[in-house]
Write a structure and sequence with these properties.
The complex is a heterodimer of chains A (307) and B (518). Chain A is an all-alpha fold and 307 residues long. Chain A has 13 helices and no strands. In chain B, strand 17 and strand 18 (384-385) form a beta hairpin. Classes of the chains: A mainly alpha (307), B alpha/beta (518).
Chain lengths: 307, 518
């Protein structure tokens, strides 16, 4: 049993940044906007959170700054796509490239700087329960936050009026405009929220997962998050499933490689998490009607009130 | 004929709504030119006009979707501003849209809740209110169902219930009957008359002149953005109303055509065609059989969403049938032949959707002619486009079909609906097809263009081609078709000669009152 707890803990650690980024992007896409800049916003959040943490030693401030950086970059995206009606795909790709470059520039002096990881929560008594204790009650604040946010997003989208309005904007912005909803403003808030969540995912990477800064340390997680949202058919519960499946398999294949089984080339093992996650999510969501019920119909299309 | 002093409104009660000198200018066109309009309590007031006459713009201004450049709006005698749709609703103006503005993936109750500025569709009080109101007016609705599961008629009920839930004193209805069966239209009129008797005002926009005579108390006619007449439609004939709309004597499609009863090898023969719909909300075809002979117009009636789209795809070759011999053309099996191959054989196709399916919206007319006609017209040589020839062909179409445009370089999007439709129909007819398949050829087209299109289709058939027209408009089918069959839930009724049946009978069939042909 001694081996189980560390494995579970590392699965959670590998999955949390994905969960943040994906749940944020889910809200963005539900409002009808496709922001492909997740990877860039994660890197922006990661580098700012790291710098603030090193300079001030205040991890709460660092987390907030990471989220704010993500939101600011998303704000730039919003100005271009919602305000100036630029193409969302091209702007999102540019945002990712911008984020990679900007984070490398800002973090130049911090490569190799050591940092103490975010403190794990320790609840005397509860954390001492074997296996369950450290897994459930011994995580850092961002892990809990990722679950709170996911729960809140699911509740918001499917139980509140504001969530209903957001979904209606994503499905048919012209009808929503005709009823009198401020389509652009609603989408702006969704995009800012998505940016903040990507920033938090980045902050988790540089503050907790691997407490350091390295260029392009998000290593494609932003792209995985984007794919997760689609393969999870825009359902928050399935995003959690997909994020943890991916995190778990990433870890499992690392352990397999570590055990030195030479029968399977390591390149193939590296592929397993990607393929398996896609296969599983495609299998559970192959019902075309469900996809249409959940997919935001207006995604990626520029909305102009007079158009 | 004086729009400033409406004849039937007592002068001591202020009008519910008074528009004064409303002007709205768009780049390159004056959409509304000093339009004045009075709407009295308890009347059904028709707003008439061709495409582009300024009706939609006026309604958008009235409902706060767009602002006027100048002019004033008075509501119950008070001068008001209507900056947004919610402001319009707050005054008591409700709107039932022409293109349903419903959210398909949401429930009926969610759709109502969104428009009502309150809660969500989970609120039990709201559910109860919807049920009570729909029962009151005989508009049966299950508020928990998703909109995408509903028929077109049911969707309209959602729109109306959603509008009535806000207890409006002025209801604007834009082309409400274009998608309904005759019996559904009758039910709608009953509801509208009851709303009028409750003292509400209804502004009713429609192309269907007969309906306006049956239903409306007064009519205001727009042409070129100006009010040109105001009249009592019950004192007019459909032809005199049409003449007011187009500003000259109305020339309807030629009547008294010979009915084709010739035997011989059918031009098109469909036998036992079954096909799955390609989208989860489409209707699959079940064992469809019919034949079309050269020289006749064959009409397929039906309410939208009963399998027309799948059938049209199967006929045009956009989707090939599972078996080759289910579709035969001049005796040859063509079920597995694709759209290009069928065009080469002489089968032309006019889809329902003008922009995006019938034409590429942003390409000039010349390129749109090329895309459809390059094969039959020989516009491509050694892989190169013959520009001169394609321009000439485009000019021919524009001239022959009287298409109002800025020339062969005009983007398809820039044409009005009626002119673009004339261009598309003309483009196909001038390729000299043996068989023309047209879907909703005059949907949303003004009376003048519709008559021209209908005449062209009849002429094509009389010249020896076969014509298949899929339409929801029974008046149209009875004007141009020799035989008519009804599609319902993916099955097709037996065909009947139009001279030996009535619109009422076909209307009943459109509601599904027939046994599928074995």
């Amino acid at each position: 049993m001694d081996i189980l707890a560390p494995i579970l803990i590392s699965i959670i650690a590998a999955s949390t940044p994905l969960l943040f980024a994906a749940i944020g992007e889910l809200v963005v896409e539900k409002s009808g906007v496709l922001n492909l800049g997740v990877e860039g916003m994660m890197l922006g959040g990661a580098v700012i959170a790291f710098i603030i943490s090193v300079e001030t030693g205040n991890s709460a401030l660092a987390i907030v700054a990471g989220a704010a950086m993500g939101a600011m970059m998303a704000g730039l995206f919003a100005v271009l796509t919602l305000g100036l009606l630029a193409n969302q795909v091209a702007t999102g790709l540019a945002l990712t490239l911008f984020g990679i470059g900007l984070s490398a520039l800002l973090g130049q002096g911090y490569v190799g700087t050591p940092l103490t990881a975010l403190p794990k929560l320790n609840i005397p008594g509860l954390t001492d329960i074997p296996v369950l204790g450290p897994v459930v009650f011994g995580q850092d604040v961002l892990v809990y936050l990722s679950f709170v946010v996911t729960g809140l997003v699911a509740w918001f989208l499917y139980r509140t009026r504001a969530g209903l309005v957001l979904r209606s904007v994503g499905e048919n912005p012209h009808a929503a405009h005709a009823i009198g909803f401020p389509v652009i403003r609603i989408r702006l808030f969704a995009v800012l929220f998505g940016g903040a969540m990507a920033g938090l995912g980045g902050a988790y990477l540089s503050l907790s997962y691997t407490p350091m800064w390295a260029e392009e340390m998000s290593a494609g997680r932003g792209w995985i998050a984007l794919a997760l949202v689609v393969f999870a058919t825009w359902r928050p519960g399935r995003v959690v499933l997909g994020a943890y499946l991916f995190g778990g398999l990433t870890l499992a294949q690392l352990h397999l490689q570590g055990m030195g089984s030479s029968a399977i080339p390591s390149q193939f093992l590296n592929m397993v998490p990607y393929i398996a996650t896609i296969v599983v999510l495609v299998l559970i969501s192959r019902d075309a009607t469900r996809i249409r019920m959940n997919a935001p119909a207006s995604i990626g299309k520029v909305f102009h009130p007079d158009g | 004929m004086n729009s400033d002093t409406p004849s039937t409104v007592p002068q001591d009660t202020p009008p519910r709504l008074r528009l004064r000198e409303i002007t709205k200018r768009f780049p390159g066109c004056l959409a509304n030119d000093a339009v004045s309009l009075d709407l009295a309590p308890g009347e059904i007031h028709a707003l008439l006009g061709e495409n582009g006459a300024g009706k939609s713009t006026l309604v958008k201004i009235l409902y706060g979707v767009q602002g006027a450049d100048s002019g004033t709006i008075e509501w119950e005698g008070q001068k008001v501003d209507i900056p947004s749709p919610s402001a319009a609703r707050a005054l008591g103006i409700g709107m039932v849209f022409q293109h349903f503005s419903l959210f398909e993936t949401l429930s009926v109750a969610d759709n109502v809740a969104l428009a009502m500025q309150r809660g969500t569709g989970r609120d039990p009080a709201l559910l109860a209110e919807i049920e009570k109101l729909s029962a009151d007016y005989g508009l049966a609705l299950d508020p928990t169902r998703s909109v995408h599961e509903l028929s077109v008629g049911e969707r309209q009920r959602v729109e109306i219930v959603r509008c009535l839930m806000q207890n409006p004193s002025l209801i604007v209805m834009d082309e409400p009957t274009s998608v309904l069966t005759p019996s559904e239209v009758e039910k709608l009129f009953t509801v509208l008359r009851r709303l009028r008797d409750e003292g509400r005002t209804i502004l009713y926009i429609s192309h269907k002149l007969q309906e306006i005579r049956d239903l409306c108390d007064r009519a205001t006619i727009l042409r070129g953005g100006k009010v040109v007449a105001s009249c009592d439609p019950r004192q007019e004939t459909p032809n005199s109303l049409a003449a007011l709309m187009i500003g000259r004597a109305f020339d309807g499609p030629k009547a008294g055509k010979p009915v084709q009863v010739g035997e011989g090898v059918p031009l098109l023969s469909v036998q036992g065609l079954s096909m799955e719909a390609d989208s989860p909300f489409g209707t699959s075809l079940k064992n469809i059989s019919f034949t079309v002979r050269a020289g006749e117009v064959f009409g397929i009636a039906g309410v939208a969403g009963n399998g027309q789209n799948t059938l049209l795809a199967a006929l045009s070759g956009e989707r090939t049938a599972p078996r080759d011999d289910w579709v035969k053309f001049e005796g040859h099996s063509i079920g597995r032949v694709g759209a290009r191959g069928r065009r080469d054989m002489g089968i032309s196709f006019v889809p329902e959707e003008r922009l995006g399916h019938g034409s590429v919206p942003d390409l000039p007319l010349e390129d749109n002619a090329l895309l459809s006609g390059w094969g039959r017209w020989g516009l491509i040589r050694h892989g190169l486009i013959s520009r001169g020839k394609s321009r000439k062909k485009t000019e021919d179409v524009i001239e022959a079909f009287n298409v109002v445009s800025t020339g062969t370089g005009a983007a398809a999007r820039s044409l009005s609906g009626g002119n673009l439709q004339k261009f598309i129909i003309g483009r196909e007819i001038m390729q000299d097809p043996k068989l023309l398949i047209a879907a909703q050829p005059t949907w949303g087209v003004d009376a003048g263009s519709a008559a021209a299109i209908q005449s062209a289709l009849i002429d094509l058939a009389r010249a020896g081609a076969g014509v298949v027209v899929v339409s929801q408009d029974l008046d149209e089918l009875f004007t141009i078709a020799d035989r008519v069959a009804v599609i319902f839930d993916g099955t097709l009724s037996e065909s009947r000669p139009t001279h030996a049946t009535s619109a009422e009978d076909v209307g009943l069939l459109m509601g599904g009152l027939f046994e599928a042909t074995p």
